[in-house]
Design goal:
The complex is a heterodimer of chains A (360) and B (278). With 360 residues, chain A is of the alpha+beta class. Chain A has 12 helices and 4 strands, in the order H-H-H-H-H-E-H-H-H-E-E-E-H-H-H-H. Classes of the chains: A alpha+beta (360), B alpha/beta (278).
Chain lengths: 360, 278
């Protein structure tokens, strides 16, 4: 009888997991992937998983990617679910991105500036032609690039700031002054301060931020952005240990930082000046950092007295929908059985139709 | 389970959730924001209910988990296994034996007792969300008990098609003050909430809200004097146990219009079967 088919959920789950493991392994004749290979050779995937998984650990991110068969949102979910169980020993000091060991640094607003432009490892000027040599073992040729110059690089935004042409960077607008909010501990509330907004964007889905940033460029929000400075490199993470009374450098992390310069016409109180949009994320992900910087600036519309008309400018809309772990969970939960609700809908529609078909 | 605390969540998190629960019980039907954690199960699959259950579970508890009224649906199996694995508590499929019942989309047919707690999984805690998408705005509406928008929606349904078209997740007024989503239970189950002897707790993980109905609290579905609340049920008896008053699932048996109606509450149905029609 058909009804029997809905029984046996327990056995079905076990069988599904076994099938999944077999599917994940693929053809046993092909050597199994080592997580070190993923960490070393699929670095951009690892970086995305660390950013959206909100946990900086390339080894675990590589494991998550392997376990998720390369489904990066699923991998980020695995990492998040692990991260949430970790004890919190301390807060780090804010990372000093001005002291970044820069691998790549470009500015679109000045032809040259102190420290220069450093192209670094970028796909920007590659011709997107499939490199068939890579398909053969040993086809990947590693040639040492030129080391970055290592001279001091004053921030481009500071150069603009010397002339007063760009708004000064404001501190945290959090009520607890200098203690940024943390939406993994406290539920998101509106209006949300810029600290929490930036945290949400840093964890947010790369594709969502890309599309929203793009929508602003196309007219939904009227953005006029320039890349003031885009940097990729290593920054030191420091922890102040109260018992020791000094600062401990606990290691370096790779980050991508984007400072976006935007037009601002000024108001009665403020003379015309440039305004800032800021993006910072784990790993090397320029698309993510740029999308974040565009959306950050768009969400400042109300604060700067601009009309709030577009999705990217609407803080509640952006923050409620940028998290892909939340989004994928809720979209995919539609696969769960809903037949109790559907049954009540069926009966309601049948009753309404009966009412229509029997006039009087 | 090795490496994890009893019932997965750490004690600090449980304490935070229990505080939210106490506040929720003190203000029946009011949505209390809480620092919802990322769980090893996906958002939308019961993370709110799981966090509530994890926070109230003791070693002596007996847990029942149902989805669509059934203990054997895949997600119910998965959640029950999660607690069997992380808390090692006894589990049951018998409603009468359970001290904590976590549910998605149903309330058991057998009335619950004072020594039981029912935990609902809630996808969307905001009853006004389909009428007003901004939570900043709906929060204000709750504060002012400004629920005219929902009355207008019900009125428009009646004016257009002659009846209220909400058949599940039917909005209820709790303790005469807060409009509340009963979670997507069928309207058939809504009256069971009114004056229920058991404590009713609601967890929405993705939306980061907890709310509650203390025992013996008035829960009224929103309606009009001339258009009273109507519950919906397939007009059949259960093909397995013969019950004529339980909520039924419709099972398609062939492609020629064949249908079979069976109890959605599998424990209720199984207990009746020796004496019933099957």
């Amino acid at each position: 009888m058909a009804y029997v088919a809905v029984k046996g959920g327990e056995r079905a789950i076990d069988a599904a997991h076994a099938w999944l493991a077999e599917d994940r392994r693929g053809d046993p004749a092909v050597p199994e992937l080592a997580t070190a290979q993923i960490a070393e050779q699929l670095g951009r995937a690892v970086d995305r998983v660390m950013a959206e998984g909100a946990c900086y650990d390339p080894g675990l991110a590589a494991l998550a990617i392997k376990q998720a068969q390369g489904d990066l949102i699923e991998a980020a979910f695995l990492l998040r679910a692990y991260r949430t169980t970790l004890p919190r020993f301390a807060d780090t000091r804010p990372v000093e991105t001005s002291a970044m060991a820069v691998r790549r640094r470009v500015s679109a607003v000045f032809k040259d500036m102190p420290g220069g432009q450093v192209l670094g490892p970028t796909y920007d000027y590659t011709h997107r032609l499939l490199d068939f040599a890579l398909a053969e073992p040993g086809g990947a040729v590693a040639e040492a690039g030129t080391a970055p110059p290592g001279e001091p690089m004053p921030g481009v935004m500071d150069l603009l700031g010397q002339e007063g042409l760009i708004e000064p960077e404001t501190g945290s607008d959090n009520r607890h002054m200098n203690v940024p909010g943390d939406l993994t501990r406290e539920p998101l509330a509106f209006p949300a301060g810029r600290d929490v907004r930036l945290q949400a964007l840093a964890r947010g889905d790369e594709g969502f931020l890309l599309a929203l940033g793009y929508s602003g460029q196309r007219g939904y929000g009227g953005a006029h952005p320039f890349v003031g400075e885009l940097c990729v490199g290593e920054v030191a993470v420091e922890v102040e240990v109260p018992e020791l009374g000094f600062v401990l450098d606990i290691g370096d992390i790779t980050v991508t930082e984007c400072q976006m310069v935007n037009q601002f016409r000024g108001s009665k109180q403020v003379p015309p000046q440039f305004t800032r949009g800021y993006g910072l994320c784990f790993g090397h992900s320029e698309r993510k950092a740029m999308g974040m910087a565009l959306v950050d600036r768009a969400m400042r519309a109300a604060e700067l007295g601009e009309d709030v008309t577009a999705p990217a400018q609407t803080v509640e809309f952006v923050l409620s929908h940028c998290d892909n772990i939340e989004a994928t969970g809720f979209v995919e939960h539609l696969k769960l059985p809903h037949y109790v609700d559907f049954q009540s809908e069926l009966e309601t529609i049948r009753r309404l139709r009966a009412g229509v078909e029997e006039p009087g | 389970m090795n490496g994890y605390n009893f019932a997965y969540l750490d004690e600090q998190t449980k304490r935070m959730i229990r505080r939210a629960l106490l506040k929720a019980v003190a203000i029946p039907g009011h949505q209390v924001p809480f620092g919802s954690r990322e769980m090893p199960l996906p958002y939308g699959w019961g993370t709110g209910g799981i966090q509530v259950t994890a926070s109230i579970l003791g070693r002596a508890d007996v847990l029942k988990v149902i989805d669509q009224g059934a203990d054997d649906t895949t997600n119910a199996v998965s959640i029950r296994r999660f607690f069997a694995r992380t808390a090692g508590v006894a589990t049951t499929t018998r409603t009468a034996e359970a001290s904590v019942i976590q549910t998605r989309h149903r309330i058991p047919e057998v009335p619950l007792r004072e020594d039981q707690i029912i935990v609902y999984q809630v996808p969307q805690p905001e009853p006004l969300s389909k009428l007003e998408p901004s939570r900043a705005e709906t929060r204000r509406m709750h504060a002012l008990a400004e629920y005219g928008l929902m009355h207008v929606k019900l009125y428009e349904d009646i004016a257009r098609v002659g009846a209220v078209t909400i058949s599940y997740d039917y909005p209820v007024m709790v303790n005469g003050r807060h409009l509340m989503s009963p979670s997507p239970i069928p309207a058939f189950d809504t009256p069971k909430m009114d004056g229920m002897a058991a404590l009713q707790l609601f967890g929405a993980g993705r939306e980061k809200r907890i709310y509650a109905i203390p025992p013996y609290t008035a829960v009224r579905p929103l309606d009009f004097e001339d258009h009273p609340f109507r519950l919906t049920r397939a007009p059949h008896a259960c093909a397995l146990c013969g019950a004529g008053d339980s909520y039924l699932d419709e099972v398609v048996t062939d492609d020629r219009g064949g249908r079979m109606f069976v109890c959605s509450d599998t424990d209720f149905c199984a207990a009746r079967q020796p004496a019933g029609a099957a």
